[in-house]
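Two quick folds needed for the group meeting slides. Do the first one here.
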Amino acid sequence: MPAFGLMSWRVIGIAVLAGCSAAIAWHFQDWRYGRQLAEQARLHSETLNQMTQANAIQQRLEQDKRLVLEQQLSASEQNHYRVLSDAQRNQDRLRDRLATADVRLSVLLDASDAASVCKVSAASSPGGVDHGAVRARLDPTHAQRIIAITDAGDRGLIALQACQAYVSALIR
């Protein structure tokens, strides 16, 4: 029996040694796998960090663009209202001058027209540009209506220019 006991101890020793080798190899492989996972996690974290920074930079650039656009639109709006109020002030001044007879509106008549052969003074005023042309003065109420029409036209043109400036600022 002693031969059997010695043999069984050898088998047991070899089995224990093989088990320990397998356990060490398993542990080494597990450690290597853990290290790979840690490296992947680190790379993933760095990638996310870079993406977050790039997104923050892009967001800041967009905010800066929006701020510049808002400032341009504000300046354009202020300019629009300044031009509009200047035009309104000029129209009011002209209406006042028409009402107080400082200024009279007249029209140039066609001298070759047979219907206009009425006796209208052909003399020009000292500051006039049409020397010797036949002119007829407009009734003050009609002159006021003409001024109101041109005022509405001026306002429309000013509003159109403001819209065009707004759209061109948005397109840029």
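Then this one, please, same format:
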Amino acid sequence: MSFRLAAVLSILLPTVLLTAACAPRQDYRGITIEQEKLDLIKVGQSSEGQVNALLGSPSTISTFPDWGTVYYYISSETETVAFLAPELIDQQVLAIAFDKDSRVKDIKRYGLKDGKQIAFVDRETPTRGKEMTVLEQLFGNLG
């Protein structure tokens, strides 16, 4: 009877471990703002300090001070299966714009559907110098 038990365990244990290893893993990053806290912020009335005290430090702040300050609260959810690259499931961006008097001017929410894919250029910038083959590099190191 113990031989049968060992045989069954030798088949079941690896199967259970492999199945558990392939289960998707979800990761949450960033700052998720609850609607109740957001409702306390009033356009034209709330100040930058009040927003900071209520919601905490933003993920990032706009870099165009001439147009007014904008706080961005960013959160994302990704899912990873086994060894594959993570897949973006959801992303939320809360943008709170302030006027010159540091009062809330506008509040906007952006989701995953509002984002745009950017095509990166994979060209390389040429540098000065000589293009060498593998053999030239090998023999060049000898002397």
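Slide caption for protein two: The radius of gyration is 27 Å.
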